[in-house]
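Contributing: when you submit paired examples, paste them exactly as shown. First protein:
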Amino acid sequence: MTSTAPARRNFLRSPWVVPIAVTSAVAVSLLSQPLFASGDSNDLPDVTADQLVTQVLDAKPQAMSGTVVHTARLGLPDMLFTEATGADPISLLGGSSTMRVWTDGVDRSRVALLGTMSEYSVVNDGPEAWTYSSSNDEAVHYSFSDADLARLKTMGEQARVEATKKQAELPTPQEAATEALARVGEFSTVRVDSQSTVAGREVYQLIVTPTTDKTLVKRIVLSIDGETKIPLRVQTWSTQDDTAPAVEVSFTDVTFGMPSESVFGFTAPAGVTEREVVVPLPQNDGAVKGSGSAHEMPVVTGTGWGTVVEFKDLDVAALLAKDPSAMTGSGERIIGSEEAQKMLEEFVPEHSDGSGMDMGVLYDQLTTKVPEGRLLSTTLLSILVTNDGRVLVGAVPAETLRAMA
């Protein structure tokens, strides 16, 4: 029977999911130091930090499956999670969540976020993706138009990979680590610590430490499988708490080998609500364009761990009420095509998520009123919504954003 309950918004597109993304997104740049693994715990060959970083970046993608536990200690109110029942990406913002993952190592994957009696699944198959929530009996199919599919065929391999990334992805150790290691530069030091064991596998431990005190990130510890060089655990520590990681994504069991073909297929269960969403393929300049005006790119200030991203002309109150025109000060569409406009609405929150959580009330409870606007502070990320319609985001202390306002 098709559910008549209000469609719950995809919380992976919520501004509240940003603290999770900081696990990978703020891990910019590494400066390798020639320190060796001690080899005390395992029998893995000694390796320098520079060699290990190179090996991880050059590692061949692996077909694999396993169980991942995601734990967040971001300092957010407990009420945020006690009101969220069942398997829902919002649960990734606090406490521990369990996911099952499968990948063919190329372009097909499945991730299932497990609740006590529910499941939220994401299935990726090349240029297509599906999400399914058993809590509200809804399945969403994301695809490209025929014209954009033709464009994809003319792109280089890396461009295709970037273009087909889905916003519905759930975090895994590989995703959290790859972004960190992909940006080698001058903003961090990295060393190899004592070898250890994760999910029954011998691992190297790579410790990334920012060279600045202008960030909330104290260090990131990556546990790298000694054989495949695949990251099996990523721990992000905050400067505000050295007793436990602020965010940890870790395999508890893992099997390297091709999963069953059946896990990559998706068929919506009988009776669920099904929606089709055509994803607009970004133009070369990164803006999504149509017959209307292009979306203004955010302003980036600072470098490395102290980077702050500023979005302009956002009416947060209207966004919480699901008004797409709030994305611009003029009230006009920022995306011209009908398909793109539908996609935009996917990124805009419902007034309620279907379980009685009023997003406006939630916003008021999570943020604190300051002279500059409203402030959300977590152990890894600060977000300031200014009175003049700007949003500043960074893995920096709240005072940094307030000074910029």
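Second protein:
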Amino acid sequence: MNRLINDIQQHSFKIQSEDDLQRIVDAIGERKVVLLGEASHGTSEFYTYRAEITKRLIEQKGFSIIAVEGDWPSCFEVNRYIKGYDQTYQNAREALGQFNRWPTWMWANEEVLQLTEWLKQYNQKHEKQVGFYGIDVYSLWESMEEIINYLEKIKSPDVETAKNAFACFEPHNRKPENYGVAASFLSEDCVNEVIELLQKVRTNFIHHQSEEATLNLQVNALVAANAEQYYRAMVQDDTASWNVRDYHMADTVDELFHYHGDDQKIIIWEHNTHIGDARATDMKGEGLVNVGQIMRERFGQEQVYAIGFGTHRGSVVAAIRWGEPLEVMTVPIAERNSWEDLMHEAGAFNKAILFTEDNKHLFTKPVGHRAIGVVYHPEYEHLGNYVPSVMSERYDAFIHIDETKALVPLKVGVEMT
């Protein structure tokens, strides 16, 4: 591993201030899709570094779409706030209060609050508006409610179709696992209802409307259709449900381009496991795809730039079980000979590597690369938190923060222990 450490030392550069991130922005060039990862959903520096890169891409490169690993309805409320569509929210804290589904801390946190206020101020000063959108698949019931409310508001004849679809899901008490079991094993699914709804929305609402109403309606319908498929697959096949989810996120990106124009540029914030090309990891052998792979396939590798993030040690916000109160946990020192360990051994400071045609061949040896989820058990991370990865194929660049700290939640609808 000494050779790899030497190669890291030769081809990395220190990050001592935000200005050092400019080298990465310059390397992005004129690409239209930039993917910004994170090794956890609860690390402050991952959010703040991504925010700084995002600001520079907006100001210097003309990016105008931010798509994140979050629910469409909640993120769209933030979008409405930063674009001034209404005066419902007096500040970013109130807008972020709409993230009320666990894990709320992913987007309802102080780090995102600061970026939200910056976006609000930017949009007030510029004619070209920047949007903030959620591309995840989980918000089935919320998206159905959004569809019904809007169709009732405009007195659409399709409202009954939407209500029929909603009624099909209602017996499951908003519990995805209940629907998944009923659909998979009892043949009690809602496939026909959501497909009919999606088709009618696509057919009857083809014109742009004020405040992105058409986009909002169409993506909520897409969420309903794909969430049904996701929850049905969830109880039978983890591979199938993962792929449904990532194809949905990629399809939502396509919807954003279709609505705003193919000449736009988009920034995608997601976990490393979604934005780092799956073909460069052991995910490929399991039949898994991800957003990073799909973006490269759809837009061409020369139009896509993926940046991974990692840390050697620190603290993180996570929970011991799904739905449990969040905790500030210790992130242990990286496992020996993992990517994070090698980055640390190359110098105990923050740094970045740009993988280029000149140096890619030096980083093709598969190494373990740490991934932390919203559910985390630090004491057992050596059993499954390291993903074998060819780093120079998985990412176009990598940012290493040697010691990180937990982000600061806004405590919206959650308890801390």
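If you have annotations for the second protein, write them as plain sentences, like these:
The chain has 16 helices and eleven strands.
The longest helix spans residues 238-260.
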